[in-house]
Specification:
The complex is a heterodimer of chains A (264) and B (245). Chain A is an alpha/beta fold and 264 residues long. Chain A contains seven helices and nine strands, in the order βββαββαααβαβαββα. Chain A folds into two domains: 167 residues, P-loop containing nucleotide triphosphate hydrolases (Rossmann fold, 3-Layer(aba) Sandwich); 67 residues, no CATH class. The longest helix of chain A is centred in the last third of the chain and has 18 residues. In chain A, 41% of the residues are buried. Chain B is 82% helix and 0% strand. The longest helix of chain B is centred in the last third of the chain and has 40 residues. In chain B, α2 crosses α10, α4 packs across α6 and α5 crosses α8. Classes of the chains: A alpha/beta (264), B mainly alpha (245).
């Protein structure tokens, strides 16, 4: 199911990051004065060499970590500078990280449970989220009974169950095989097209970044600075076959050059 | 097979070497004592079981509680964790008579002995489990502003269950040992009738086969408690933990 992305999306949250500095106790400086603006409803991918601070940046946006200097604010289109609530932000990790002692249904319901939503409502929302990722049959299974790809889809469902307006993903499909990965990319893009939340997707893969995003931000090696902020010149409708087109390859070239330049 | 073989060897040795009954009775004599002396042994078993169970339950509850408290802060851990080792190292031989002075009659001093001897493995294993929670899952709970109690109950304790059961398995056997030792040392003085008391008085009366019978029952009690903890662990973990699947 492909949908066209409207330019004005009331559902997404914007990100305004200014002068972000984050250094760690061991002397490593991950970010040194980084600025980033993400418009509500935008799909942005972030690329960069290993250790350049991509994950650190994502954690800072998620408020899992505090910067030493600089500000990060999340904005809603209707009222700027109002801090959105906890349920508005969701995070998908590199591995599924499900609770192994709970069934899929209860795993996906976890965020709502932590927000004290009553049982019947949260189980209903959980079922919907599970259906959204195509795993309705697996609701009563345990994580150890699922494949890696299925577990990652459960993780995605868990992130979506609160209907987040900002979805942060940290190389979520990196551990999966190519076919599964591409399929999940397509599913994620469909999800974004139908819901309209803001998405920030960290990845190592140039192809993945170009297929998914409206905009690709390339970071240099540590400390991470933006070396390229490129709007992907591809149509809003992206069938799977677009990966083979010359336009796609042209975009890949731009990003690849930026990555090489930032890695020097 | 091993058990049958050992019993046969034991039996043969006693006969062939003409070992006097008061040094090493035959297996047959021990089994006979189990039946003949059951009026003494059954109440003893009941008493020891109560003491061991009480001590074990206390170890489980207090041990887990202490581990939860220690897991909350590195400062607390550095301050108090080294002292919990004293539970393990205190010589029970010396402590048991003192407990008698402090706690008086009946089951209490014996149960406290069992507790002292068995609590440290529960603390150590539970703490190790609580401190090795998946950091990404901790992040996930923080992302949704989960309260510390919710994180403890829904994430950290379930995640630590395999370690908790390891600690409890060790504690089960130790609780029985602690009970028997306490009974052996001071049991008669406090009017106890447990298996440890039975062993001691049987040795005094040169009724070695009765002592062996009591020791056999003590071992079986330890085995039964261990088995019960094992079963509980299996039921709790069989759906999701590699160790029980």
């Amino acid at each position: 199911m492909q949908g066209t992305q409207s330019t004005l999306t009331p559902t997404g949250i914007g990100i305004e990051a200014r002068g972000i500095c984050r250094a760690f106790d061991n002397g490593v400086v991950a970010l040194d004065g980084l600025d980033l603006h993400v418009a509500p409803g935008e799909f942005v991918s972030i690329l960069g060499p290993s250790g350049c601070g991509k994950s650190t940046l994502l954690r800072l946006i998620a408020n899992l970590d505090r910067p030493q200097a600089g500000t990060i604010s999340l904005t809603t289109p209707d009222e700027s500078r109002r801090t959105p609530g906890r349920s508005d932000v969701a995070y998908v990790f590199q591995d599924a990280h499900l609770l192994p002692w709970r069934k899929v249904l209860d795993n996906v319901a976890l965020p709502l449970e932590l927000m004290h939503v009553d049982r019947s409502t949260r189980l209903e929302s959980s079922r919907q989220a599970i259906a959204q990722v195509g795993l309705a049959d697996a609701a009563d299974r345990y994580p150890n009974q699922l494949s890696g790809g299925m577990r990652m889809r459960v993780s995605l469902a868990r992130a979506m169950v609160t209907r987040p307006r900002l979805l942060l993903l940290d190389e979520p499909f990196a551990a999966l095989d190519e076919i599964t990965r591409q399929r999940l990319d397509e599913q994620l893009r469909d999800l974004w097209a139908s819901v309209g939340m803001t998405v920030v997707f960290v990845t190592h893969s140039t192809g993945e970044a170009i297929f998914l995003a409206q905009r690709a931000v390339v970071l240099s090696s540590r400390p991470g600075r933006i070396v390229e902020d490129h709007s992907i010149a591809l149509p809003a409708e992206r069938p799977a076959s677009i990966r083979g087109t010359p336009e796609f390859a042209r975009e890949a070239r731009v990003i690849y050059d930026a990555l090489e330049g930032g890695n020097a | 097979m091993v058990l049958v073989g050992a019993v046969l060897v034991w039996s043969a040795y006693v006969r062939l070497a003409h070992v006097p009954a008061y040094i090493l009775p035959t297996p047959a004599a021990v089994l006979r004592s189990l039946v003949v002396d059951r009026d003494l042994l059954v109440p003893s078993l009941a008493w020891t079981t109560l003491g061991a169970l009480a001590g074990f339950m206390a170890s489980a509850i207090v041990g887990i509680l202490i581990a939860v408290l220690l897991s909350a802060s590195a400062v607390l851990r550095r301050a108090f964790y080294p002292y919990t080792v004293f539970f393990q190292t205190v010589p029970i031989i010396a402590i048991a008579p003192m407990l008698l002075f402090w706690l008086g009659w009946g089951l209490l001093p014996v149960a406290v002995c069992a507790f002292i001897v068995s609590v440290f493995p529960v603390i150590a294993n539970t703490l190790a489990g609580l401190l090795s929670t998946d950091p990404a899952l901790s992040d996930l709970f923080r992302l949704y502003d989960a309260r510390p109690i919710a994180t403890l109950w829904k994430l950290r304790l379930p995640s630590a269950l395999p370690n908790i059961f390891t600690g409890l398995r060790i504690a089960a056997g130790l609780a029985v040992i602690g009970t028997i030792v306490a009974e052996f040392l001071v049991g008669m003085l406090i009017g106890g009738v447990g298996l440890g008391v039975r062993i001691q008085s049987a040795i005094h009366e040169s009724r070695t086969e009765l002592a062996f019978a009591a020791m056999l029952l003590a071992s079986l009690l330890g085995l039964a408690m261990f088995g019960a903890v094992n079963l509980a662990g299996h039921l709790a973990l069989r759906r999701w933990h590699a160790s029980e699947m």
